[in-house]
């Protein structure tokens, strides 16, 4: 067994993401079991999107955290809109409208001029949906 395989095996025994997987996978501080669960969720998200794209149907919402490079996806959204309304892309800015608490599984429809995204995380604070503003994190809570 090579040194690399031995290190990978040791990482798996300790429920850690192996270093050679971290080089090519998405960034995460999660344990191996949770990392793998999220990996499978990402694969399913992109599989469903690909399947819908074949049917020429766009998903209702996009799991922004699933993208390896979310900025690339948002740039593509800007480019599509710029082409649609014949405006130079450097004249566009993003506008965000927070939606009420919505379950994406039952959500149908889409945005006429943009996209719905979900799966955003905030570090160092939390969002109060009823007041629609940011607040201090609860004690001991890192991510919300």
Polypeptide structure, described:
This protein has 144 residues and is mainly alpha-helical. It has two domains: 55 residues; 87 residues, no CATH class. The protein contains four helices and four strands; from the N terminus they run αααβαβββ. A two-stranded parallel sheet has the order 1-2.
Structure summary:
This protein is mainly α and 144 residues long. The chain has helices at residues 3-13, 19-24, 32-54, 70-85, and strands at residues 62-63, 117-118, 126-128, 133-135. A two-stranded parallel sheet has the order 1-2. The chain has a two-stranded antiparallel ribbon with strand order 3-4.
SSE inventory with pairings:
Elements: H1 3-13, H2 19-24, H3 32-54, E1 62-63, H4 70-85, E2 117-118, E3 126-128, E4 133-135
Parallel strand pairs: 1-2
Antiparallel strand pairs: 3-4
Give helix % range: 25-40%
Give the domain tally. 2
List the strand order in the largest sheet.
1-2
SSE topology string = HHHEHEEE
**Class derived from helix and strand content:** mainly alpha
> How far is the N terminus from the C terminus?
42 Å
Overall geometric form: globular
Mean pLDDT value: 86
Low-confidence stretches: none
Tell me the strand percentage band.
5-15%
Keywords:
144 residues; 39% helix; mainly alpha; 4 helices
């Amino acid at each position: 067994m090579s040194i690399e395989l031995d290190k990978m095996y040791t990482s798996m025994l300790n429920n850690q993401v192996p270093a050679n997987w971290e080089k090519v996978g998405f960034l995460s501080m999660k344990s191996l079991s949770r990392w793998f669960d999220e990996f499978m969720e990402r694969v399913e998200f992109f599989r469903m999107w690909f399947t819908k794209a074949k049917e020429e149907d766009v998903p209702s919402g996009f799991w922004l955290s699933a993208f390896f490079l979310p900025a690339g996806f948002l740039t593509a959204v800007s480019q599509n809109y710029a082409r649609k309304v014949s405006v130079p892309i450097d004249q566009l800015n993003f506008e965000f409208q927070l939606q009420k608490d919505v379950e994406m599984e039952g959500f149908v429809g889409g945005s006429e001029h943009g996209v719905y995204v979900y799966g955003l995380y905030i570090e160092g604070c939390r969002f109060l949906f009823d007041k629609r503003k940011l607040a201090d994190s609860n004690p001991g809570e890192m991510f919300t």
